[in-house]
Amino acid sequence: MDAERIIDLFMFAIPSLITGVLAYYFFKEHTKNEDGRRRYLLKKDMQVTALPIRLQAYERLALYLERISPNKLLVRVKPTSSNKEDYESLLISSIEQELEHNLSQQIYVSDKCWSIISAAKNATIQLIRKASLLPKTNTSEKLREVILTEMMERRAPSDAALSFIKDEVSELY
To answer: What value does the CA radius of gyration of the chain take, rounded to a whole number of Å?
Structure first.
C-alpha cells in the first residue's frame, strides 16, 4: 500500500513538474525577447541622435579634403616671400593645422575612412615636397606653378578620399 501511494504521488507531481518546466522556459524566452526588444529600441534611438553627428563629421572631413586639395590650397595660401622653402613650410603647416581642427571627427567615421584621409594628407604633403625638390623650382611662384601643372596631369590625392567618404555616407541610408 505504501508503494501504491508513492506511485500516486509521482502521478500527481509529474504534471506539476512538466508545467513548471514549461513555464520556466516560456518566461525565460519572454524575458530574452523583451530584453532584445529594449536593446533594439535603444539602439534605434541612439542611431537617430548619432546620425546627424556622424553626417556632420563626414561633412567636416569632406571640407578638410577640399581645403587641402593642392588647387584650392595654392589659391587660398599665398606665398609671403619668394623663398620656396618658406612657402613649402607654409603649405604643409596649413595642411597640418586643418587636420588638427578635425582630429575629433575620427571617432565618428570608420578606421578605414580615417586611414584613407590620413593617406590623402600625407600624399598631398609628399607632392608638395617632391615639387620643391625639383631643380627647376627655385622660387615660391615656380613652386606654385609646378604643383598646379602636376594637378592638371593627375587627380589630387584628396579626390580619392573624398570619393570614399561619399561611398561610406551612401551606405548610411
So the answer is: 32
